[in-house]
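Quick look at the format.
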Amino acid sequence: MQKDDQMQREVSSLLSLPDGLEVISTTVADTALTIHIVTTAKSSLCPLCAYAATRVRSYYTRLVADVPCGGCQVQLILHVRKFRCETSDCPRRVFVERLAPFIKPWARMTSRLSETIQVIGLATCGELGARFAPHLGIQTSPTTILRRIMALPTCPPEHVSHLGIDDWSFRRGQKFGTILVDLETRKIIDLLPDRTTETSAAWMQAHPEIDIVSRDRGGEYAAAARMGAPQARQVADRFHLAQNLATRVEAFLAKRRAEICQVTQPAERPSDQSDEQAPPADDWRPAVEHEAQQVRIARQEERQDRYRQLQELHRQGLPKKEIARRMGMAARTVERWLLQGIPHSKPRRKRSSCFDPYAATAYELWKNGCQNSVQLWQALQTKGYRGSYRTVHRFVETLPDYSKRIQRTMKQCKEVPESLLQHFQAREAVWLFVRDPSDLDEKEQKEVAAICQASPTAGTMYALAQQFMRMIRQLEGERLHDWLDQVRASGIPELQGFVQSIEKDKAAVLAGLTLPHSNGLVEGKVNKVKLMKRMMFGRADFALLRQRVLHAL
């Protein structure tokens, strides 16, 4: 008897049951574990008058689900009591003893199981959570998971002094919301269903303690900050300032491409550069198998014969749909063949191979005299190649023809001089203008020098862009006024609009170039919201998304 009592106490301790509950028996059937539990407390408090009642009126049982144990579902059968309240003025005469917080009144599962389902829902949402839960030994439904998520309380933030605000796309290009981030605690504090000025201003009015509002260059949030938090200092995000500048620089370079490329001189070729270089792995294709070549030729002949047959039927006056029916083709294919002719087959895109990293090495060995496939394969094995001999042989079969093609190509390249800025594109050159000069390699520095030499106006643009980017990197906002004067004096039309936009929002821009606050943290939180939104396959409404974001793990 003592051993049984000790075993029951050990089971109670193993299940982490609260004081006042004791296990009397356990039953295992298939994958379910049933545990009978009784209450041992001598009294229970009345839920209305808090009277400690000791008089038991009756007994009854409750079936409650609990967290799984060892992969088995756990069901608790609780033998609880009903007490009689003896307080004369209490309206409750009979009450059931409370087992909270372990089990809430009228609950069909323990609080810890409910919290586990909540965590599953926050991590995976409804449908995915319902498919994932059985692997943990929990049987639930998507509706139950969503109900548990929506039951989580959402408390408004108590104190927000540094606020980051930005928009996020609920449906790209159609529906947008607003995200609010506490820049000090680095947490999302709220989501708003739209990005209108009135909604954001109303939220800020409820928090008069806001001192800093970090935002993008949009006018909606600027107006919202003026209306809802006039006491706060607005800070324009530095990333958006750099982005606005880059857009202007790109437009400038695109308009002057002809001027820049026309005066650039051919680039000098290094004297020690070899005329014959290793072939690129993307262009070095293995030799085509003889059988595959024969199949390809046969298919081309078949297509050519079908094309002749199609033309003959068309000359006889048959409609296109009838031609398609007789030849077993789609009507659109018949129409395309009649308009454009028979399409010629293109070579397939080269597939990646384990031989690609060793293509340059193999070519050098072959050029130095190792032209036997077996010897070349063995030499590559010493350098880490783990592919088959057949793969090496198929690539080596193409080398004589490939070498001749390289020689022809190099001869043509010598005849046509290469310009340093022959590949000039505005969308790529703009990053040479806005990046830190110390981050550019030697080739990029030469390109910048060539652009500035080709166009004096481009040199002025480069100097102004670097000055503004230096203000962004080093927070030198005190130089903004002088920079604006230089831009006006330069007469570059692409920068005049940028100056006008800064003048309209000069206080926020100056704060962005002076204070350390930025919207970089907010942009990262926007990516988090996008991830949660896509996990719900776009089928959830705003209320559920807000719950998941605010209670994210």
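Next, a different chain entirely:
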Amino acid sequence: MALKILMNITGHFVKSSHETGPLNLGLFIKLLGRSCTQFSGHGGKKENVAQLPNSIQSNAKVTNMDDGKISRRPSTIIRHAMCKEKLEEFLLQKGASHLSVESIILRYPKAITCRSKDLPEVWGLWQSILKTDKAVMLVVTRSPESFFRSGGIEKLSENIAFFQSLGLSPKILNELMLQSPRTFANSVQINKQMVAFLEELCVRLGGENPEDFARQAITNNIFILTRSINRVKANIESLQSLMKLENKDMLSWIYGEGAFILNLCNNYIEENFLLFQQKLQSLGVLEADITRHIYENPSILLLSPKVFVYKIEVLLDCGVEASKLLDNTLLSDVSLSRLRTRLRLLKQLGYDLRSNGTGILLLSQPRFLSRLTRWSKNAKTKQI
């Protein structure tokens, strides 16, 4: 009986927000309180509080509460529902859509535990770097965990102040927040440890300006602060051994093109390097040339072995000599789909890569079409 009366009382007020709009929580709390008091027991016995409606259950599930806790802790459920409502209202005011808000909370349910009074200040700290609400919302939408885990005002302020103290440019700070927001979910102590490791690495490799080295490593690889020190250390040792690099060359490599490769898994780096080396050596390419090419074009290590081998086979089938495979950045810089499309078109028009070279494959699309049109006209003229 208690369950039926309670459901009748609350039925009008507790609706899914998808059906009728926001829940009138104040009135619902009063009604629920009266209901719990009225049916707290007869003859010294207490009944369980009535099963809560689906819309409140869904809020409870957002906080990973099981069904037993839902029925036993209505006050906790209501408190979380109120927090959820305030969060939704805040995000909607900042320009989020209802669908985006729902996605944010589903992907990071703990977002509703962020104190509503702190949200404007936290948002303001992110906006001080990213400049616009739209940019901050992009971070929240892409990585809600990163945004809300950095929600401690003190921790976020300390991280921002620390990165600014390193001399990072406003552009890099912007990229850190926009592309690598997990950096700000770290404690400032963890970020300081990575910077200290980079400075020590510079000294070990014979560098003379450790502060500049750490700053440049972060500039070249904005994700490095989200990696473990053990991973970065293992990658450096592995790459230095595989490429037989002197300390000064390794230092220069991290300063320049090689910094972002430190993100990769150590096993992935080793397996790719050895497979690339074996494949190219089987075609008669010298080991020294292979190492030099990887050193100058480290992005080649990002390719999967399957894609790397397929690219080589396609180029060889089109008449490119094995000795010319490493003459440019063709293997690393041109996607497989673009390579196949262009080679098919060139073949149809009778373009000979062996005599004309592979440079045309590296051109931007407008320049590629322009070059192809010009070549086609010249070819027709010669035929006449």
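Residues 1-72 have pLDDT under 50 and may be disordered.

See the schema section for token definitions.
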